[in-house]
Amino acid sequence: MLYELWILAISSLVAATCGIVGTFLVLRRIAMVADAISHTVLLGIVGAFLVSQTLEGPLMLIGAAVVGLATTYFIQVLDNAGVPADAAIGVVFTSLFSVGVILVSLYARDVHLDVDHVLMGDISFAPFHTIEWNGIPMGPQAFWVILAVFIIDLALILLLYKEFKITSFDPALAAALGIPVTLIHYLLMTMVSITAVASFDAVGAILVVALLIVPPATAYLLTEKLSRMIIVSALTGVAAAVTGYYTAKYFNVSIAGCIASAAGALFLIAFLFSPSQGILLRGRQRKKAAAPASS
Amino acid sequence: MSEAVRVENITAAYRKEPVLRNVSFALPQGRLIGIVGPNGAGKSTLLKAVLELIPKSSGNVEILGSSVRSQKKNIGYVPQRGNVDWDFPTNALDVVMMGRYAQIGWLKRPSKKDKALAVEALERVGMKEYADRQISQLSGGQQQRVFLARALIQDAQVYFMDEPFAGVDATTERAIIDLLKELKEKGKTVIVVHHDLQTVTEYFDWVLLLNQRLIACGPVEQTFTSELLQKTYGGRLSFIQQENLKI
Amino acid sequence: MQEWLQFLSSPNLQWVMAGAALLGLASGVVGSFVLLRKESLVGDAMAHAALPGICLGFLVFGRETLALMGGAALTGLLAVYAIRAVHSQSKIKQDAAIGIVLSVFFGFGIVLLTMITNGSYSQSSGIDEFIFGQAASLVGADVQILIASALVLLILSFLFFKELKLLIFDPLFAGGIGLPIRFLNALLSSMVVLVVITGIQTVGVILMAALLITPAVTARYWTDRLGVMAVLSGLIGGLSGAVGALLSSTISGLPTGPVIVVTATAFFLISFLFAPQRGILFRMMETRKNTQFVLNNFLLDTMYEKLEKRYAAGQYSALFSRRELEEQTRLPRNGLEKTIQALQKQGLLTQTDGKYVLTGTGLAYAYDSSLLRRIQDIHLTHEAELGSWKEASANGDLRKPRDYLMNERIHSLLTAEQKLPVSLAIKQSSIEYADQA
């Protein structure tokens, strides 16, 4: 029973964290950069492991942040040099991910760092990996890591809410007002990276993408206000996590896979039935007529 | 009183081709100024180079007698409307409030006063009843008015507007120009990238003719002459000599 | 050496290398179309979306290669249409649509995968190898399929080359002249799906995108023509496949797929850095040269104009103090310094008694530069009559502005507007200048 609660707690926190951060990825049209980062954090994890010979501690988060920023930066460099944006993403993430896989195969083979685990996660083991503090059992380590990241992400977004908002909506105006657009961008990418690495225990780095993109996209269809979009996105993520978990338990299949599928199902419902946007219910003609001619 | 904008020898190049060549001018305060020139003359580029949003090969810009960086709070900017995602989940009031984000400062949230100012700004552009409207549901003209309200709330001394009349209906255009004139009456400087020659004399009292290099800059009655227009447009405006243009 | 030959002649390695090379070839060719269509990441989504199809194929028909491939093709195509539907039927943008489809399909694939591995299916082992690929397990039969599908892809690319080219370049026009757009779109998507289902066994679904994207981007650095690009991309892909397969079988523990990707990335990096015209080093040098070129001409023009004014006022001094140059140009200190140095190096400017003076060549050059700028002005102000400057300069030789003076109309306009530069020392220096040019 307690075991189940921990799993629900961890996966819900992961989903909520991803939902909050992912909102800005969807609004900035850089969802696939998040996809790239969630692949390349593998390299950060391996790097941190090769340095410290352990899979614990803040070094993991630092490694992920460094590689996440490097991924963002490389994509930017290729983009500026005239490589089409989507191809730039493809080249960078496949190459860094490959280097990560090769390093794992060469140096980290015999230890507890297997690629399948990092990519697909294995939340069913997370509750067993507990920590103690002054002799008091504190519960699973994964929970505390993701809680810490959740608090960091939430605090940053609350503190810099209007800066995140204006740089997402109108970067040209933001720059003219003197708001550091580039700095905010890299801060967001750092948040994505540490979120991805903190989540890999639960859902695996690749399915983090599902939680980073799908619930925010669902909320995008359902809300017309940024703060509400963030909340709905987090709640949709949690709903996907809970239904995903019970579905997985019922059919005895991958929890991470079920969470992603549940997120997909929730998106499909919004896509079909959203009051203002759903393709079955909305008055699309009206919206098209009101759209600006220039867009 | 220092000039609103002083620009010295701005050159901006794309590859070997200069887009702006050695442009220098000074714009007085308290005028409604039109930047006029044919397509590809570098009007938007000039605006962005002045605001330091794009790099320039050389040149120096002063706004109100000091550097652009130090005057950010006195600068209002209205970018082209097509550059933002109008599906963004926010309403008109919120967009207007963005104009105050720099004044509000880091880590702080918009206060009641900011909100009241935003409502007031919306009222001035005749959009008060649309405050709660999702921005994707606004028409092109209404979106432009929201952008204008956002500039008003910045309470700047010098305004830069990139094609504010592009794609708006006649009523909105009228409303916008009335507002710009009102700003001018209050001693503000308003600099507008404009492409409709028909309305130049009616709208502006100062005009800057640009075609990669500065053709002329001065009071509209002295500058908006057929000879200088001929120079700006390279004779492409054969109708200038004809009666439809009030010169 | 003997061992090496023996190693290379091992039939297993030959199969693997041949398979990887063919795969690289086919995906390189198809990838060029996909890249220019700006749908590289759609290919990525298709590859991820193949996973549930493979599992479904297995669940329904068992471990039959055709069943697995058929399932992969089905879900791969479904993914493409799902992306298009989400993108076109809602306000969701393309990138998010790709992300949604990719991650949800993949997640569902993982669900099915665990269903298979946890269930009591016979021969279920090895299904999860599709995630990372297992080139070492390629056997003769697999390579035969690879050969067949690579051939089909190459033939299709060849047969429909001009139609696909037009579809990519100008779909509206293509539709306008009666090409079947829907069919061509479906054809291209099917070709990508065929590449994907052929490749996932070797490199896996996650890295499949690299085979579509990286060789094509690399080829783009060396050519502007689609035909050449497709061939080049195919060669780079094939080479990466062969080298990657060879390396991974030589060094134990190296996984094939990632090594192929890293090899392809190495080709990309070399091109990205060093390719002429498009390579980053070339472009950086070009940008610096262009900026300096603009500044050089600016300084020369400014000096020439000043000399003209002095001449008109009856002053014949050709000397400029540093301060004068600063005031006249208003360039920042180090920008001016660099420009002065550049001009001195070219022998256009020289220093006497701490003052600057144009050399004979410099004077002639400055004359030409001023003249060119003024002719350009004339063109701008009389565009209707003389045509646009861009066209005029594209046809003429920019380095000989004096040739434009042969045009009587330009000459008379320059004279009329008092823009004809006073030819200060043109006579004695023109010979010198001609030697240089």
TrEMBL record, chain A:
GO cellular component: ATP-binding cassette (ABC) transporter complex
The UniProt record lists the keyword Membrane: yes
Subcellular location: Cell membrane
Transmembrane segments: 6-26, 33-51, 57-75, 87-108, 142-161, 173-196, 202-222, 229-248, 254-274
Source taxon at top rank: Bacteria
Matching SUPFAM superfamilies: ABC transporter involved in vitamin B12 uptake, BtuC (SSF81345)
Predominant location category: membrane
Topology in the lipid bilayer: Multi-pass membrane protein
InterPro entries: ABC_BtuC-like (IPR037294), ABC_TroCD (IPR001626)
Stated family: Belongs to the ABC-3 integral membrane protein family.
Name the UniProt record assigns to this protein: Manganese/zinc/iron transport system permease protein
From TrEMBL, chain B:
Keywords: ATP-binding, Nucleotide-binding, Transport
Gene Ontology MF annotations: ATP binding; ATP hydrolysis activity
ABC transporter domain: residues covered: 5-237
SMART domains (UniProt xref): AAA (SM00382)
Matches recorded under InterPro entries: AAA+_ATPase, ABC_transporter-like_ATP-bd, ABC_transporter-like_CS, Metal_Ion_Import_ABC, P-loop_NTPase
Family: Belongs to the ABC transporter superfamily.
Record protein name field: Manganese/zinc/iron transport system ATP-binding protein
Organism: Sinobaca qinghaiensis
UniProtKB/TrEMBL annotation, chain C:
Major localisation: membrane
InterPro entries reported in the protein's UniProt record: ABC_BtuC-like (IPR037294), ABC_TroCD (IPR001626)
Bilayer disposition of the protein: Multi-pass membrane protein
A Pfam entry, by short name: ABC-3
Localization: Cell membrane
Transmembrane segments: 15-36, 41-60, 66-84, 96-116, 136-159, 166-185, 191-214, 226-247, 253-275
Keywords: Cell membrane, Membrane, Transmembrane, Transmembrane helix, Transport
The organism of origin for this protein: Sinobaca qinghaiensis
Lineage: Bacteria, Bacillati, Bacillota, Bacilli, Bacillales
Annotated function: This protein is probably a component of a manganese permease, a binding protein-dependent, ATP-driven transport system.
Any single Gene Ontology cellular-component annotation: ATP-binding cassette (ABC) transporter complex
GO biological process annotation, one example: response to zinc ion
Protein name: Manganese transport system membrane protein MntC
Domain of life: Bacteria
Family (UniProt): Belongs to the ABC-3 integral membrane protein family.
